[in-house]
Amino acid sequence: MANEPAPVKKEDLAEAEVNAIRDQDLVDKRRNQILDGALALFLEKGFASTTIRDICAKSGVNQASLYDYVANKQDILRRAMNRVWFRRKGGTLGEKMAAVSTDKEFEETVMAYYRHEWVQNRDGILLAYRAVPHLTDEDRQTLREREERVLVDLSNHLRMNCNLADDDPRPRIIANLLIFMHAFGPFRGWLMRGIDETEVEKTVARAIRAIIRDLAQDD
Q1: I need a surface site. Which of 3, 96, 125, 147 has the fewest CB within 10 A?
Q2: Looking at per-residue confidence, does 218 or 162 come out higher?
Q3: DSSP letter at 190?
Q4: Following DSSP, what letter does each residue of 37-65 receive, concatenated?
Q5: Per residue in 104-116, is it b (16+ CB within 10 Å) or e — as a string?
Q6: For 86-129, how does the pLDDT look when each residue is reduced to its tens digit (9 = 90+)?
Q7: Which residues in 202-214 are b (16+ Cβ under 10 Å) and which e?
Q8: 120 class by beta-carbon count within 10 Å (0-12 exposed, 13-18 middle, 19+ buried)
């Protein structure tokens, strides 16, 4: 059974070539300071309302030397997006599901994945969502291609796991739903206040397992 082909892979957003400083350790340190400050400001104030002066004040890097490490505010946004979205580690949901063999493993794997997305990767999700209007057309295309790869990876896993035909659209629909759940979980978290986080994760994992079982058994 053939899998749906993924788009041509482009690793991340193009960062400007800035080579004024030869000490790479210093470059890494200052860029991390700049990105830490910028990320906090982009999430608090938004990209459009954040100025270079704001970023300098937040990061502790003065404006005279900031351009030794980054090209401009758009370059800072690209670098921040690469850090928290394109280069994040841990594997996709499709890859993780493919590695389990029992219901218990499935539940634990899905719980851990959503916990990571909703907690550890919360800033990445929020920045990706809020930054889209400020990305160039090329950057938006790169982001779209990345999300398409994630979607294809998960839908191919579901198709193979449930032994479904190549032209069955349901694996892609379900894959999109599962990705939506982790991508927008942080925006809905305030509605779950007062409910134990583990109970939320367990309920979601069991619901996903039920959806996949139904997909496999449905004629």
Answers
A1: 3
A2: 162
A3: G
A4: HHHHHHHHH-TTT--HHHHHHHHT--HHH
A5: eebbebbbebbbe
A6: 887 778 888 888 889 898 999 999 999 998 888 888 888 889 88
A7: eebbeebeeebee
A8: exposed
Nearest CA-CA partner of 151 in 129, 105, 183: 183
Please, is 117 exposed, middle or buried when counting C-beta atoms within 10 Å of its C-beta (0-12, 13-18, 19+)? Answer: buried
What are the chain's domains? 24-70 (1.10.10), 90-217 (1.10.357)
Residues for the chain: how many in total? Answer: 219
Sign of CA dihedral 199, 200, 202, 207: positive
d(CA 182, CA 115): 9
Q: Looking up tokens 């969502």, which residue turns up?
A: 129
Task: Give the burial string for 60-80 (b: 16+ CB within 10 Å, else e).
Answer: ebeeeebeebbeebbbbbbbb
Task: Summarize the chain as % helix, strand, coil (round to 5).
Answer: 70, 0, 30
Q: Helix 103-115 crosses helix 170-188 at what angle (to 10 degrees)?
A: 50
Q: Among 127, 123, 125, which residue's Cα sits nearest to residue 183?
A: 125
Please state, in angstroms and rounded to a whole number, the distance separating the CA atoms of residues 209 and 106: 8
Q: Indicate if the pLDDT at residue 170 is higher than 60.
A: yes
